[in-house]
């Protein structure tokens, strides 16, 4: 192996000289020792040796001299023994799989650092472990050996976390399995196991269990007790039912039960709300219970090869579902709600007895097209369908930033680099493979674009075979599928085309040996990074050089800055430009340009500042738009889109400038012509079109000047953008529909702004000037939603009818309900407007009037019930007018009508009520979707007021102005209280300036009380506690515990109808509580916990200690037979106390003395020592973060003196605000909640952290509201509000309910709520997200949605403290702390339930990295009082102002 050895050493040196890899080469046993000696010289510091398939028969003993070795991989050889290797003290991993061992070598067991051992595919029948063997073994793989049972000795490996015994002949699991307390992953696949032992439930840390391909007839009952389970794999068994108990697992994410004997699913399946993947294929399931709709986190649902005859309508509730496989069932129909599932990315319905209509659509365009087809049939646009299915997208910017993550979800398992989208990969063809796992490089027509052209089976055999393994069909099913004709195999492959494409890419990215080459793990030397720029400038680079640059960027953090500092960016731009400008660009040149774009992509991802400041770099990227290769063009677009995304301020400006420069040099008339070509090209994949349109949106949105934006939109219109959108809307691509919707919303908003800045005639003239018709042509301005700014030009003849022109427009833009539209001549110079008659000829109208022709909706006939007067009002109005103008029109013909500004339009349908937004045009309001407009009502506008409960919680509520104060009080208590709270115990007060309160009379209406949108109501208790929650100085309290009378109603009571026990105590004296606390006959841990936390509310720690000492000193005169038992109970309680409470110094001194006195007693010495050790070191309950925190997303100009909200990433703002909140929240101690200290001026010093958290809540709300009203322009104001909604969404995702509520409070602040023109500019998605967040934090049902969300949240989490403080306030107001001498213990038990809920979320910190500049930015935000904020709100949007009056 002389030459081969030298070659392997050279390859190792090309990497980092740390790994020596030999594969598929014969190595003679007598040569191995000499090779080890050479390795000591040639590769000192060697860490990894891999010798696979080298026919090794023995391991050389001198391997022991490679003391730095950490990983030894000797798979696929002929080894039977192993020498002792005492010097390999660092060996961490040992792979001896696929050899011929018959027993585990003793030398293996003696390796001190060994953590991973793989001895699969050997001939092991036993596994012996002696004391001291495998001291650190964590992962043990014994797959495919000769075991007939799990080796008992394996159960002695206490540190084992992963055990794989699949593919043996194991028939039973020993009881000793329960000893593996640290086991997290257990793989028992392909055995003959029928049941699990009772001790299996001891595996409390088990997260993954694979018992597939065994002989289970039922799901083991032990599994539902393993609460940490996230993955259960029981496929290919004989299971006939799913027990309800299994559905109690709250962490279960993946459940695989395919190829069993299931016929039904239990309704309790809906309890598995954390489930993300559910595999039920190859069973006999006939129906799905409606409860499957509760699986709201489900993303993948496999149901093929069952007997389903119908689907429940609740399946449409699975809004996160992206994969739904239903082929080979018995479905004859689909529920109407099914067609709304436009969020699906993969859907299979083949081989079902559906109607011919559906089957034709499926056969022609795929099952996803069926959803779109039905949408069109029911007159619901793709845009609105997309809106309803994408509630996770908080704003357009957030959508773009998640694009990479979204693509990774769609193409899971993809090995391509992030520089390419899914669509790019589908177009790629491999000219030669790369060892750096980079994607294929030269374009190829997609095989799935023309499904009728089935390729030869040899072309997709690997993909088909891989598909069968990936989907894990039963062997019987695999054999059947392999016998299918080639055409049916291709059809099956198309059912799983996402994963198939991934497999094809995986095949193409392997090298000739069929395995991936390892990536380097060390930084390249400085001179290497400096060498590449020189080669690039000189044009001397080749494909290998480019591959090494990419590999270095992937594997070395230090390489990128060295490369940039050496002039790599400029050199890369020079090479890209020079290659792109060649006259005859070869395929090799295109490959090199593609490699350059990959490198640019990596540098952009790494946020290298130089690439943005180098205009030549961005221009060289833009110049690639002129390349003939589709692959190169889409890569160029993707890199530019990423630049705009990562640098939203400078990025779009640089890119737009570069595109302008390219267009000028190329002589193109339209600056976005190349981008339009990508959208119009039918061969361009939809994902690529989504990226292209995202880039266009980024560029257009970045232009601040309205007229400049309008000019670009007009230019796009001239290229036929709207016609293109009409075609693209039929696609099912989620990302593309998002971008189309965003473009149309912004275009409509710009059109409305243009109408406000200029009159309508000037705007139409600007549009027409961009596209005037010639002789014999008619130009029509389209004045409908989504087409504003578009003109339609058509040739006309002398006999052309109006109806013919109208039909052309309707067909061109796929407009439904043609009868609602017409051609209209706009009024001008004293001439009234006129609707053209359909039967008349166009030529019969004056040519000068036809120059002002518009296509628009005909007037609507509307009727509304004036609720106040029970009177029906009617009007005929233009759908273009706003809802506010519609109210004015309804009142216009009514003599002496009230002020229309006091009224609003309401849709009162059986599904619920909707108050229409005043600035919203009728055509885009919910009225347009009403099939029956009889539900319209005119109502007095509600009063929007703030409601305070104490000082800690502020909520915004709407009230009808004519209801009484009493009714308003009942509504408030009904929303924030519970059944135990009575409204008669409270009153409402109006809070004035300085906090002064004025109690409102109960029988007056809110209008009579002169409430307005700036009012603040205060909920005030009418009576105080019967007994203050303070220490009692009653002489009876000092009665000795041993002198306390026996149990009687004067010193202890129990809950009515219950037996006397600790858990049923209602009231008791302190003596009786301490007596029960240390009772030798009864012990209740919950009782002890409540007492330890709550005793500060009714006594002092010194008094409690004195009572414990009394209890310890049992009098000789007492009739206690075993006083030591009571004394021991006292000590146990003391230990619990010191572990779970913060002790005063005085109590510490007393406890130390007590411990000193009892420590000499033999029976108490151990517990005394434990107490002493804990006095100054309370038990630590905080959970440490094991994983590395995510890298902060920071702006490049974070050190700038003038920072703004828009400079920071939305997610990072949410993270830092969460850290700020968590720091305060986790400091709160239980005693801060006692005596309503946060609400009482004299006691506030007792609750410093609670008050800090309340202050933070108020500050956050003030920061948000002040920032919004400080923006003078409505467009910027809407953008900032959208950003805040996105931040609020991130806060929700981070389970920071406290700050989420503060944001919602700001949005509902009267000063923000009244900004109707700002709110009208919010996108549909932002409005939808805001509605969902408001619903989460709504007061209804005592915050039932929030409480449910909190209960479902996984720590770390920050509760909304206001709700829990309100609970405590109601408890304090309605219940006395003392009843005579007795402590009202049941009250404190209720309070404990609230406090313990809060405590449960204090132990786990957020695994986030603090960024002080971002936190300082928050703290430096100005805080304005409510009046100042409201005054600013009036200034930017005055009362009664029209849209034209707003900037």
Number of strands: 36
Overall, the morphology is: globular
User: Which range best describes the helical content: under 10%, 10-25%, 25-40%, 40-55%, 55-70% or over 70%?
Assistant: 25-40%
Radius of gyration: 37 Å
The strand order across the widest sheet is 1-2-3-4-5-6-7-8-9-10-11-12-13-14-15
Protein structure class: alpha/beta
Report the sheet-strand fraction.
5-15%
The overall pLDDT average reads 79
Which residues sit in consecutive blocks of at least 5 with pLDDT less than 50?
372-452, 497-526, 770-774, 1024-1037
Distance between the termini: 80 Å
Task: Report the major sheet.
Answer: 15 strands, parallel
Q: How large is the count of helical segments?
A: 50
Protein topology:
Elements: H1 2-15, E1 19-23, H2 29-42, E2 48-52, E3 71-73, E4 93-95, H3 106-109, E5 116-118, E6 139-141, E7 162-164, E8 185-187, E9 208-210, E10 231-233, E11 254-256, E12 277-279, E13 300-302, E14 323-325, E15 346-348, H4 356-365, H5 367-377, H6 382-388, H7 396-401, H8 403-410, H9 422-426, E16 428-429, E17 442-443, H10 457-471, H11 475-482, H12 486-495, H13 497-508, H14 526-537, H15 543-555, H16 559-565, H17 568-580, H18 587-605, H19 609-613, H20 615-623, H21 630-646, H22 650-666, H23 673-680, H24 686-701, H25 706-718, H26 721-728, H27 734-757, H28 760-769, E18 777-782, E19 790-795, H29 802-812, E20 821-825, E21 834-835, H30 847-850, E22 853-857, E23 860-866, E24 871-877, H31 883-892, E25 903-909, E26 912-915, E27 936-940, E28 943-949, E29 953-959, H32 965-976, E30 986-991, E31 997-999, E32 1016-1021, E33 1052-1054, E34 1065-1068, H33 1070-1077, H34 1085-1094, H35 1101-1112, H36 1123-1140, H37 1145-1158, H38 1165-1174, H39 1210-1225, H40 1248-1269, H41 1274-1293, H42 1297-1307, H43 1310-1313, H44 1316-1320, H45 1324-1336, H46 1340-1352, ...
């Amino acid at each position: 192996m002389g030459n081969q050895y030298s070659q392997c050493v050279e390859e190792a040196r090309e990497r980092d000289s740390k790994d020596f890899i030999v594969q598929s080469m014969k190595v003679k046993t007598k040569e191995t020792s000499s090779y080890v000696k050479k390795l000591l010289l040639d590769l000192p510091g060697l860490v990894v040796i891999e010798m696979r398939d080298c026919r090794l028969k023995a391991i050389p003993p001198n391997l022991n001299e490679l003391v730095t070795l950490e990983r030894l991989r000797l798979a696929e050889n002929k080894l039977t023994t192993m020498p002792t290797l005492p010097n390999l003290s660092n060996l961490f991993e040992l792979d001896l799989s696929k050899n011929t061992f018959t027993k585990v070598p003793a030398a293996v067991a003696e390796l001190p650092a060994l953590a991973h051992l793989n001895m699969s595919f050997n001939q092991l029948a036993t596994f012996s472990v002696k004391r001291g063997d495998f001291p650190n073994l964590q992962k043990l793989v014994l797959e495919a050996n000769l075991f007939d049972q799990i080796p008992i000795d394996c159960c002695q490996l206490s540190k084992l976390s992963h055990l794989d015994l699949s593919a043996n002949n194991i028939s039973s699991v020993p009881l000793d399995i329960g000893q593996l307390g640290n086991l997290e992953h257990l793989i028992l696949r392909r055995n003959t196991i029928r049941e699990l032992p009772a001790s299996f439930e001891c595996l409390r840390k088990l997260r993954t269990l694979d018992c597939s391909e065994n002989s289970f007839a039922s799901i083991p009952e032990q599994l539902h007790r393993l609460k940490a389970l996230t993955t259960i794999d029981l496929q290919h068994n004989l299971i006939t039912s799913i027990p309800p108990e299994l559905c109690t697992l709250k962490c279960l994410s993946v459940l695989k039960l395919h190829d069993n004997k299931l016929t039904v699913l239990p309704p309790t399946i809906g309890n598995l709300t954390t489930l993300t993947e559910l595999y039920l294929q190859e069973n006999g399931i006939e129906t799905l219970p409606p409860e499957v709709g509760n699986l709201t986190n489900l993303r993948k649902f496999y149901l093929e090869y069952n007997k389903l005859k119908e689907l429940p309508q609740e399946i449409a509730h699975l809004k996160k579902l992206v994969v739904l496989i239903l082929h080979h069932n018995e479905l004859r129909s689909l529920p109407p709600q099914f067609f709304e599932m436009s969020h699906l990315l993969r859907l299979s319905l083949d081989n079902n007895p559906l109607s011919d209509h559906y089957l034709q659509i499926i056969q022609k365009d795929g099952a996803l097209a069926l959803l779109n087809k039905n949408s069109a049939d029911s007159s619901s646009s793709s845009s609105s369908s997309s809106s309803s299915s994408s509630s996770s997208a908080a704003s357009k910017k957030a959508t773009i930033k998640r694009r990479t993550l979204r693509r990774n979800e769609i193409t899971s398992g993809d090995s391509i680099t992030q520089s390419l989208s899914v669509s790019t990969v589908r177009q790629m063809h491999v000219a030669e493979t790369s060892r750096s796992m980079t994607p294929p490089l030269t374009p190829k027509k997609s095989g799935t674009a023309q499904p009728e052209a089935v390729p030869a089976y040899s072309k997709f055999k690997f993909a088909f075979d891989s598909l069968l393994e990936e989907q894990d069909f039963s062997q019987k099913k695999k054999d059947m599928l392999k016998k299918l004709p080639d055409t049916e195999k291709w059809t099956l492959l198309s059912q799983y085309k996402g994963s198939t494409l991934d497999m094809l890419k995986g095949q193409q990215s392997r090298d000739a040996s069929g395995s991936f080459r390892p990536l380097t793990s060390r930084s390249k030397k400085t001179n290497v990074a400096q060498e590449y720029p020189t080669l690039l400038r000189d044009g001397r680079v080749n494909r290998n050089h480019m591959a090494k640059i990419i590999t270095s960027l992937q594997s070395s953090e230090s390489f990128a800055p060295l490369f940039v500092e050496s002039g790599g960016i400029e050199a890369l731009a020079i090479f890209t430009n020079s290659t792109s400008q060649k006259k005859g660009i070869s395929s090799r040149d295109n490959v090199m340009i593609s490699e350059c774009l990959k490198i640019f992509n990596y540098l952009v991802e790494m946020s290298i500042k130089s690439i943005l400041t180098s205009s030549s770099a961005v221009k060289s990227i833009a110049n690639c738009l002129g390349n003939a290769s589709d692959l190169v063009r889409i890569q160029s677009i993707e890199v530019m889109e990423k630049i705009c995304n990562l640098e939203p301020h400078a990025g779009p400006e640089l890119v737009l400038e570069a595109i302008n420069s390219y267009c000028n040099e190329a002589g193109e008339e339209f600056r976005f012509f190349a981008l339009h070509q990508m959208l119009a090209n039918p061969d361009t994949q939809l994902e690529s079109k989504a990226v292209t349109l995202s880039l266009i949106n980024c560029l257009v949105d970045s232009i601040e000047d309205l007229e400049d934006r309008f000019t670009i939109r007009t230019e796009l219109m001239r290229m036929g953008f709207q016609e293109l959108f009409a075609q693209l809307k039929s696609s099912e691509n989620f990302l593309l529909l998002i971008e189309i919707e965003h473009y149309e919303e912004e275009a409509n908003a710009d059109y409305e702004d243009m109408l406000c800045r200029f009159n309508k005639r000037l705007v139409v003239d600007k549009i027409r000037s961009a596209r005037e018709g010639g002789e014999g042509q008619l130009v029509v301005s389209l004045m409908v939603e989504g087409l504003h700014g578009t003109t339609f030009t058509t040739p006309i003849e002398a006999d052309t009818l109006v109806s013919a022109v109208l039909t052309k427009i309707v067909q061109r833009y796929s407009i439904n309900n043609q009868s609602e539209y017409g051609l209209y001549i706009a009024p001008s110079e004293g001439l009234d407007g006129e609707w053209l008659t359909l039967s008349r000829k166009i030529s019969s109208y004056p040519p000068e009037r036809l120059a002002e022709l518009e296509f628009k909706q005909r007037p609507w006939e509307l009727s509304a019930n004036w609720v106040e007067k029970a009177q029906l009002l009617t009007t005929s109005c233009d759908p273009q007018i706003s809802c506010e103008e519609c109210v004015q029109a309804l009142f216009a013909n009514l003599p002496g009508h009230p002020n229309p500004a006091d009224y609003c339009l309401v849709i009162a349908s059986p599904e619920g009520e909707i108050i229409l937004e005043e600035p919203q045009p009728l055509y885009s309001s919910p009225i347009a979707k009403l099939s029956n407009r009889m539900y319209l009502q005119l109502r007095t506008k509600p009063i929007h007021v703030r409601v305070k409960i104490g000082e800690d919680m502020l909520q915004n509520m709407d009230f009808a102005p004519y209801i009484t104060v009493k009714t308003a009080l009942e509504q408030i208590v009904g929303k924030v209280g519970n059944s135990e709270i009575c409204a008669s115990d409270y009153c409402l007060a109006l809070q004035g300036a300085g906090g002064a309160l004025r109690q409102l009379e109960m029988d007056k209406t809110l209008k009579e009380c002169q409430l307005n949108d700036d009012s603040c109501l205060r909920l005030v208790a009418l009576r105080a506690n019967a007994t203050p929650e303070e220490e009692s100085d009653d002489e009876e309290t000092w009665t000795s515990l041993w002198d306390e009378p026996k149990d009687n109603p004067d010193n202890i009571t129990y809950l009515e109808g219950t037996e006397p026990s600790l858990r049923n105590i209602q009231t008791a004296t302190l003596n009786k509580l301490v007596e029960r606390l240390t009772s030798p006959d009864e012990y209740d841990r919950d009782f002890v916990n409540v007492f330890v936390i709550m005793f500060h509310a009714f006594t002092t720690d010194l008094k409690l200690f004195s009572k414990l000492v009394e209890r310890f000193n049992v009098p000789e005169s007492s009739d206690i037979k075993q006083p030591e038992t009571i004394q021991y109970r006292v000590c146990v309680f003391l230990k619990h106390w010191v572990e779970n409470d913060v002790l005063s110094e005085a109590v510490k001194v007393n406890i130390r003395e007590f411990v000193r006195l009892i420590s000499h007693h033999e029976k108490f010495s151990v517990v005394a020592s434990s107490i002493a050790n804990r006095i100054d070191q309370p038990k630590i309950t905080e959970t440490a973060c094991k994983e590395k925190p995510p890298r902060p997303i920071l702006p490049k100009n974070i050190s700038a003196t003038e920072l703004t909200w828009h400079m920071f990433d939305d997610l990072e703002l949410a993270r830092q605000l969460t850290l700020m909140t968590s720091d305060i929240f986790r400091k709160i101690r239980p005693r801060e909640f006692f005596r309503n200290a946060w609400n009482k001026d004299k006691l506030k010093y007792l609750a410093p952290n609670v008050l800090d958290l309340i202050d933070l809540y108020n500050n956050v709300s003030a920061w948000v509201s002040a920032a919004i009203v400080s923006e003078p322009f409505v467009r910027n104001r809407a953008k900032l509000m959208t950003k805040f909604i996105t931040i609020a969404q991130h806060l929700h995702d981070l389970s920071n309910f406290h700050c989420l509520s503060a944001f919602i409070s700001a949005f509902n602040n009267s000063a923000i709520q009244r900004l109707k023109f700002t709110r009208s500019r919010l996108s549909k998605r932002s409005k939808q997200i805001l509605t969902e967040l408001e619903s989460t934090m709504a007061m209804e049902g005592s915050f039932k949605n929030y409480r449910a969300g909190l209960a479902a949240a996984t720590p770390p989490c920050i509760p909304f403290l206001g709700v829990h403080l309100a609970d405590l306030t109601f408890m304090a107001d309605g219940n006395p702390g003392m009843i005579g001498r007795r402590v009202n213990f049941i009250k404190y038990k209720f309070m404990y339930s609230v406090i313990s809920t809060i405590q449960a979320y204090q132990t786990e910190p957020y695994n986030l990295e603090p960024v002080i500049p971002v936190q300082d930015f928050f703290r430096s935000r100005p805080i304005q009082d409510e009046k100042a904020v409201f005054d600013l709100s009036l200034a930017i949007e005055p009362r009664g102002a029209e849209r034209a009056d707003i900037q």
